[in-house]
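Work Package 4 report. The design task specified in the project plan requires that, given a folded chain encoded as C-alpha cells, an amino acid be chosen for each position. We show below one input record used in the internal validation round.
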C-alpha cells in the first residue's frame, strides 16, 4: 500500500499531462486588479446594480474566501478587495446573460501560516484545497503566489489561479486579472479550456465544425477540446495574441492543415492580455446552468423558490463593512435587505444583518438632510440607524413598523462624507426589506 501511494505521488509530481487534463490552471498575468485602469463606463457597468436584477437571475451562489496571510504580511486582503472580486465576477456573468449571480459569504476566514503564503502548486495547493472548504458554497483560497516547480528542478513558474475538481476548490493569487476568478469558477461550473488537447494530435479539436469522429456520427467538436461546437478550436493563445486582443497565429494549423480562427475574447481562453476575455458562448452558458442544476445545493441557490427568500441578498451586497459601503445618491431610492446564508449545517445559518451606505455632501453652507425609510408590502424591520460624518458619530436612532414617522433629519449638515450604518435589531423571517432615500 505504501509503495502504491509513493508511485501515485511520483506520477502526479512529474506528469504535466495529468495536471493539464485534470487540473485547470490560469497562467500568471501582469494585468491585474491592482493595476487595471478602469474607464468610467466600465465602472458604471461594474457597480450598476441594475445589471443584477432578480428577475434576470436564476441562481445566487455564495462564495467563501480563505485568505492565506502571515503576521508580517503588509498587504492584508480585506472586505473591500473581496467586494471588488465579487463585483467583477458578477459583471462578467451578468453581461453574458448567464442568469447566475454570486454573493460574498460574510464568514470569510484568514489562514495565518507563513509556510504557505507562497503556495507550492504540486504539494501544498492540493492539501489546502482539501483542508479549507465549507459546504453549500464555492470555496476560493487566496494566496500571495502560486508556484509551480517540478521535483529536482530549479525552474519555477507562477500561476494566477487553478481549480481542483476533486475538492471543487478554486485557488487564486492576489495579483490577478479581473477575469481570472470568472475563468476558474467557469471550471467549477463544468467548462473546459477551448485549447484543451491542442498540443497532442490524438486529443486535438479540428477547426472544422462538421468533421465526425471515426466510426461515429458524433462531431469531433463535441468530443474534443472543450466539447462545445460554438467555441472555435484554438491553440493556447498566450503566444498567439497581442496586448490588443488580436490573433497573431496566422500560420498555425490543426492536424488537418486548417488555420485556426479563435475567439480571442472567450473567458475560458488563455489570451496574452487576460483583460481581453469577456465572453461566454451560448453553449457555455447552457453547460454551466446544466451543471448547476445537478449540484446538490442547487435548490438552495435558486432565487425563484419561496423557501429561499430569506437567503437572497440584495443587489448592493456585500456592504456590511464601512470599507464596503454602498454609495447612495440624493433623491434616488435604494431597496436593501437583511439576509441569511445557508450553510448546510443544522442550526448554523449565518445572518447578515448590517448594511453600510455613504453619501458625499457638497455644499457651501449648512444643509438639512432627510433620510426617509419605508417598507415593502406593509412589512418593515426594526432597525437602528447610526450616522457618521467621516468617523464621528453624529446621530443614533431606532425605527420600527410602529414608528409613525420613518424619517431622520440631519440638521445643519456641513460638507463632507457621511456614512450610514443600518442594523437589524430583531431578526425576522418576513420583515427583512426596507427602502431608503436621502433628500435635502
Amino acid at each position: 500500500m505504501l509503495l502504491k501511494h509513493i508511485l501515485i505521488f511520483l506520477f502526479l509530481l512529474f506528469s504535466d499531462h495529468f495536471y493539464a487534463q485534470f487540473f485547470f490552471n490560469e497562467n500568471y498575468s501582469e494585468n491585474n486588479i491592482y493595476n487595471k485602469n478602469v474607464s468610467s463606463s466600465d465602472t458604471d457597468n461594474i457597480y450598476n446594480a441594475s445589471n443584477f436584477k432578480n428577475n434576470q437571475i436564476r441562481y445566487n451562489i455564495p462564495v467563501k474566501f480563505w485568505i492565506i496571510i502571515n503576521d508580517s504580511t503588509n498587504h492584508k486582503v480585506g472586505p473591500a478587495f473581496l467586494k471588488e472580486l465579487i463585483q467583477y465576477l458578477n459583471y462578467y456573468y451578468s453581461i453574458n446573460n448567464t442568469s447566475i449571480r454570486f454573493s460574498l459569504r460574510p464568514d470569510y476566514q484568514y489562514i495565518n501560516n507563513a509556510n504557505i503564503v507562497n503556495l507550492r502548486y504540486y504539494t501544498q495547493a492540493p492539501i489546502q484545497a482539501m483542508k479549507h472548504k465549507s459546504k453549500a458554497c464555492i470555496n476560493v483560497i487566496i494566496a500571495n503566489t502560486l508556484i509551480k516547480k517540478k521535483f529536482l528542478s530549479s525552474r519555477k513558474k507562477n500561476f494566477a489561479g487553478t481549480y481542483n475538481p476533486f475538492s471543487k476548490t478554486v485557488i487564486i493569487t492576489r495579483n490577478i486579472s479581473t477575469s481570472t476568478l470568472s475563468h476558474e469558477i467557469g471550471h467549477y461550473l463544468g467548462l473546459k479550456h477551448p485549447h484543451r488537447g491542442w498540443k497532442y494530435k490524438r486529443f486535438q479539436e479540428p477547426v472544422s465544425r462538421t468533421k465526425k469522429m471515426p466510426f461515429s456520427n458524433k462531431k469531433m467538436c463535441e468530443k474534443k477540446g472543450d466539447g462545445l461546437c460554438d467555441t472555435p478550436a484554438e491553440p493556447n493563445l498566450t503566444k498567439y495574441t497581442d496586448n490588443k486582443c488580436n490573433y497573431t497565429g496566422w500560420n498555425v494549423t490543426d492536424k488537418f492543415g486548417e488555420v485556426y480562427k479563435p475567439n480571442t475574447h472567450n473567458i475560458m481562453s488563455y489570451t496574452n492580455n487576460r483583460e481581453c476575455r469577456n465572453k461566454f458562448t451560448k453553449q457555455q452558458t447552457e453547460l454551466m446552468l446544466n451543471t448547476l442544476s445537478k449540484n446538490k445545493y442547487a435548490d438552495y441557490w435558486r432565487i425563484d423558490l419561496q423557501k429561499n427568500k430569506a437567503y437572497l441578498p440584495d443587489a448592493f451586497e456585500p456592504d456590511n463593512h464601512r470599507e464596503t459601503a454602498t454609495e447612495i445618491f440624493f433623491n434616488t431610492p435604494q431597496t436593501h435587505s437583511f439576509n441569511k446564508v445557508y450553510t448546510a449545517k443544522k442550526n448554523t445559518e449565518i445572518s447578515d444583518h448590517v448594511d453600510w451606505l455613504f453619501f458625499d455632501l457638497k455644499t457651501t453652507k449648512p444643509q438639512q438632510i432627510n433620510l426617509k425609510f419605508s417598507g415593502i408590502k406593509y412589512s418593515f424591520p426594526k432597525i437602528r440607524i447610526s450616522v457618521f460624518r467621516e468617523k464621528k458619530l453624529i446621530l443614533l436612532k431606532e425605527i420600527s413598523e410602529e414608528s409613525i414617522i420613518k424619517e431622520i433629519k440631519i440638521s445643519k449638515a456641513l460638507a463632507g462624507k457621511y456614512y450610514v450604518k443600518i442594523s437589524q435589531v430583531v431578526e425576522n423571517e418576513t420583515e427583512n426589506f426596507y427602502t431608503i432615500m436621502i433628500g435635502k
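The chain has eight helices and 20 strands. Validation will be extended to a larger panel in the next phase.
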